[in-house]
Design goal:
disordered N terminus, alpha/beta, about 400 residues, 2 domains, 7-stranded mixed sheet, 5-stranded parallel sheet, Rossmann fold, 12 helices, single chain
Length: about 400
């Protein structure tokens, strides 16, 4: 951080009555708290960044309509990284050093988070609610990282459990993005299969931010798998499934939560029926859950045209967690008091959705939910695969 800039901002804050002293943390003024987000807002993964941003804004505006947090309005600065690590690094440095944000929130992706998290950790800036299930972010040594969602290992274990137990499958192949995200999923699948004395029937890869999946499809097709599990974003996943159906690859397709479920269903159109997606947040249309009902109301208030879906629900829950932590951080919040509030409070009930943290545990939720795309493009929550699902 530029020392002269920091001193100038601090002095200005003092003149405005910022927290009563020049020692207030960046991003906190007398009337607002500013959060920063680096995410894919354009390009092949844009629905993920836009969805997280949409949910965060819905949560922040819901709080602001009630007077904010201790009289301070919540603001969000979002920067597009295109799902590329180099741009995520640039954005993260700019958000911390130039925009002087209080915390980073809702970053999207494993490779981008892997690039940005060390910068945030070095600066002791909270890194809240990354949209990734990568294991490295669950390292208890990362005191500034606060995860909401379960891990990719939990999702891949659920895949193999249901494919082998519910459907009796013995030949399973994988398509994965050839980077840290895809390899995290590959590792989880391999562990789940080894646990059952099995191995992958075939593997195929594609490059991040492309839809070049045909070579992978040709390799996977040779094995005639009963299921293909996919660790990727919605456009390449949809392209693979559509082409696979054209060449008569008769398999069950299973996708990871990161895929962007609503975007995947729209990309697939009539080809989506029967495609499985695991989720790490509750069903966005189940308004019997108070947090989901609140999400739908907040979403409509922010953007009446927005459709409920899994990504923006996750963004909303991340926003609600940040708000709850701020409420526990005292009248003059600091980055450290914010982090202390998360780990000290331990359990946050957001309304039928409980997040639990503690010493050595920076992940709030553990559950994995099964959903299946229906012929009309909608989603159905199921307990098992096969049968009526």
């Amino acid at each position: 951080m530029n020392l002269n800039r920091y001193c100038a901002v601090a002095a200005l804050g003092l003149g405005l009555g910022l927290a009563g002293s020049a020692l207030a943390d960046p991003g906190v003024t007398a009337d607002k708290i500013v959060f920063g987000q680096s995410a894919a807002l354009d390009g092949p993964a844009s629905a993920l960044g836009q969805g997280m941003r949409l949910g965060l804004l819905a949560a922040f505006e819901e709080a602001n309509a009630k007077g904010g947090v201790n009289g301070r309005m919540l603001e969000l600065i979002s920067k597009d990284d295109g799902y590329e690590p180099e741009r995520a690094i640039e954005n993260t440095k700019a958000l911390i050093e130039q925009d002087q944000v209080f915390a980073l929130i809702g970053p999207v992706g494993t490779p981008t988070s892997k690039a940005a998290q060390p910068i945030a950790t070095e600066a002791a800036v909270p890194f809240v609610g990354p949209f990734t299930g990568a294991g490295f972010l669950r390292d208890p040594a990362l005191k500034n990282v606060i995860n909401l969602r379960g891990t990719y290992d939990a999702e891949t274990e659920a895949w193999i459990e249901h494919l082998t137990k519910d459907l009796g499958y013995k030949t399973i192949a994988i398509l994965y993005q050839d980077d840290s995200f895809g390899r995290a999923g590959l590792s989880g699948v391999q562990k789940a299969l080894e646990k059952r004395g099995m191995a992958l029937a075939a593997e195929g890869t594609y490059q991040r931010n492309t839809v070049a999946v045909k070579t992978a499809l040709l390799e996977i097709r040779k094995a005639e798998p009963e299921a293909v599990v996919i660790v990727g974003a919605y456009r390449p996943a949809a392209e693979f499934i559509k082409v696979a159906r054209k060449v008569k690859l008769d398999a069950t397709f299973v996708n990871i939560s990161f895929v962007g479920s609503l975007a995947l269903a729209k990309e697939l159109g009539s080809e989506g029926a029967g495609v499985v997606v695991t989720q790490v947040v509750p069903f966005p249309w189940d308004t019997t859950i108070p947090a989901v009902a609140a999400y739908q109301e907040a979403l409509k208030a922010h953007d009446p045209a927005a459709e409920p879906e899994f990504v923006s629900l996750e963004g909303y829950l991340v926003g609600r967690l940040a708000i709850a932590a701020l409420e526990q951080s005292g009248a003059e919040p600091t980055r450290q008091s914010f982090l202390d509030a998360v780990y000290g409070t331990g359990s946050f009930d957001l309304g039928g959705v409980t997040l639990t943290y503690g010493p050595g545990d920076n992940q709030g939720m553990d559950r994995v939910f099964l959903t299946v795309i229906q012929p009309d493009g909608s989603f159905k929550a199921v307990e098992t695969l096969g049968g009526s699902s």
